């Protein structure tokens, strides 16, 4: 399935293409038609699933298809989200996906001087993204009216509740017109959230995207923090372990897959790539060789890997961390099938840490960190504010006579 088949209009398709989005994520596939249809929605989904585009794309499309004839723009869609970081990300997404629609989106959040925000509001906006406190504040001061809202989004409702915003949210809802479309998103659905949803949406369709618990629980997962430039060397080190009979290695790009294969072959490790640029019979050959274990390492991109079904696959290695968290779950789901034990190893460089954190949110657990490897990032803790990693941080360290780099519980910390 692609975005065309979701009936997305050309100006939005163009920007999605420019962003490199080819396939809608599961939440997008399900939610976009519902929102375009004008139906209320309850989306049970986390950050990392592509949920922002799942609401931003159809909102942009609906507003651009029914332009307002007022000379001055009025706020026709409101997105309320708990944190300023999320608010900024959502506004950026609207402006990215909507760059050819002529619609204007702005963001308001607390903790900063309000004048830039009130100036933007005075110039007129179609879509407003806001955190609750600043929104109410600006409403009270008369800068914002919600009377023209056609589509309302409440994002991360469960976090709103945790952060004590529930009264603010209720006040905001009471200022919305009764006739509107409402989209309600929450990662979890405890009773209080179900009650809150009930007071916002009417005849909603529920869409749920959560990873299958079994995949996440069955597969042993490890992460190695490492500089990008040392990933090849770490892969070679790991593959010195003969326990790894076969491994499926994921890269983000076709080019990346070919490069990894070249590096491995140079070290006499049998490896083949499968990706969209390979002829069907070359892919088939690579896959048969991998299944027969004559090829030890198969390097794949996510799209090419879709058709792969290999029994007894024990190791999945994420050479690069996917930016969509669900892709991670799909990748690691290639191993640990039918009760077999599986291991997923991820190489994470400084730029990929945000993706990894999104993944951990989605799977609701911390992935075990392996520190004891030859290319550590010294004094590196992804949960502390980042220090720019430097080349000096990552000088190879001797293995000290140890033969195996394979994660063992003594070498990991939670
Ligand atoms: P979100 O869950 O909305 O925070 O999105 C997570 C990440 O996925 C963001 O970096 C988006 O830019 C990216 N993303 C969303 N939809 C797609 C898609 N269909 N294809 C590729 N990347 C996407």
Short note summarizing the structure:
The protein has 16 helices and 15 strands. The chain is α/β, with parallel strands linked by helices and 414 residues long. Helix 2 (26-36) runs parallel beside helix 3 (51-65) and helix 3 packs across helix 4 (84-97).
Describe the 3D structure:
The structure is a single chain. The chain has 414 residues and is α/β, with parallel strands linked by helices. The chain folds into 2 domains: 3-209, P-loop containing nucleotide triphosphate hydrolases (Rossmann fold), CATH 3.40.50; 213-413, P-loop containing nucleotide triphosphate hydrolases (Rossmann fold), CATH 3.40.50. It has helices at residues 10-18, 26-36, 51-65, 84-97, 115-123, 132-140, 157-162, 166-174, 191-198, 213-218, 231-238, 254-266, 280-291, 302-305, 325-332, 353-363, and strands at 41-44, 77-80, 105-108, 127-130, 151-154, 181-186, 205-208, 219-225, 247-250, 271-274, 297-300, 315-318, 342-348, 368-370, 412-413. The strands form 2 sheets. Strands 10-11-9-12-13-8-14-15 form an 8-stranded mixed β-sheet, with helices on both faces. α2 packs parallel to α3 (51-65). The longest helix is centred in the first third of the chain and has 15 residues, at 51-65. The two termini are 39 Å apart. Bound molecules: adenosine monophosphate. Adenosine monophosphate (AMP) binds next to α3.
In the residues, how many domains can be counted? 2
Structural class: alpha/beta
Mean pLDDT score, rounded?
87
Top CATH class of the largest domain: Alpha Beta
Q: Give the N-to-C terminal Cα separation.
A: 39 Å
DSSP helical segment count: 16
Order of the strands making up the biggest sheet: 10-11-9-12-13-8-14-15
């Amino acid at each position: 399935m692609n975005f065309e088949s979701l009936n997305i209009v050309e100006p939005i398709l163009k920007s999605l293409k420019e962003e490199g989005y080819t396939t809608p994520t599961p939440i997008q596939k399900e939610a976009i038609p519902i929102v375009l249809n004008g139906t209320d929605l309850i989306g049970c989904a986390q950050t990392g699933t592509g949920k922002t585009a799942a609401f931003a794309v159809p909102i942009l499309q609906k507003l651009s298809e029914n332009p307002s004839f007022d000379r001055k723009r009025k706020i026709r869609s409101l997105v309320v989200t708990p944190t300023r970081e999320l608010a900024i990300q959502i506004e950026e997404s609207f402006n990215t996906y909507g760059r050819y629609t002529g619609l204007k989106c702005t963001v308001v959040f607390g903790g900063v001087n309000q004048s830039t925000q009130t100036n933007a509001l005075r110039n007129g906006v179609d879509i407003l993204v806001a955190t609750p406190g600043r929104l109410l504040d600006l409403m009270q001061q008369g800068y914002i009216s919600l009377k023209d809202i056609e589509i309302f989004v409440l994002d991360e409702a469960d976090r709103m509740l945790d952060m004590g915003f529930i009264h603010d949210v209720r006040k905001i809802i009471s200022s919305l017109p009764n006739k509107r479309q409402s989209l309600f998103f929450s990662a979890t659905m405890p009773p209080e959230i179900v009650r809150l949803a009930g007071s916002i949406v009417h005849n909603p369709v529920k869409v749920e995207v959560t990873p299958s618990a079994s995949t996440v629980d069955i597969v042993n997962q490890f992460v190695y923090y490492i500089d990008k430039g040392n990933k090849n060397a770490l892969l070679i080190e790991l593959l010195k372990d003969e326990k790894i009979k076969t491994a499926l290695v994921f890269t983000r790009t076709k080019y990346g897959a070919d490069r990894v294969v070249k590096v491995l072959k140079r070290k006499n490790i049998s490896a083949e790539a499968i990706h969209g640029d390979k002829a069907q019979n070359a892919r088939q050959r690579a896959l048969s060789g991998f299944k027969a274990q004559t090829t030890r390492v198969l390097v794949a991109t996510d799209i090419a890997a879709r058709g792969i079904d290999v029994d007894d696959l024990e190791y999945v290695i994420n050479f690069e961390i996917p930016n969509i968290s669900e892709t991670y779950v799909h990748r690691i789901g290639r191993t640990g099938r039918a009760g077999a034990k599986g291991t997923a190893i991820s190489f994470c460089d400084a730029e990929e840490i945000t993706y990894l954190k999104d993944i951990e949110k989605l799977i609701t657990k911390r992935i075990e960190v392996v520190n004891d490897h030859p290319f550590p990032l010294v004094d590196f803790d992804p949960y502390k504010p980042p220090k720019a990693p430097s080349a000096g941080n990552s000088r190879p360290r001797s293995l000290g006579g140890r033969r195996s780099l394979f994660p063992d519980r003594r070498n990991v910390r939670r």
